[in-house]
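User: Predict the structure for this protein chain, please.
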Amino acid sequence: MSTRPYCIDLREKVMNFIKAGNSQKEASRVFGINKMTINRWHFRYKSKGRCRPKIRVGAKQTIKKESFIQYQSFRYQIRRYCP
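Assistant: Here is the predicted structure, written as structure tokens:
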């Protein structure tokens, strides 16, 4: 299973292929994409008018450099006064 979404350009090509009168099964064979994937794209295209990928949530942003420096300074002070 791929972890990256298919590009929007490919999705639009598939939707145009289907709008031209071809079936989802035929699109699956021509483009080498699973039929259920094309079915989801087509459903999303019919309901929302577009077939863009869903927004993916990734890992939280890493700590900012200034915050890390401040934290390191605080740790140093604690170690200095509380051995």
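Residues 61 and 67 are 13 Å apart (CA to CA).
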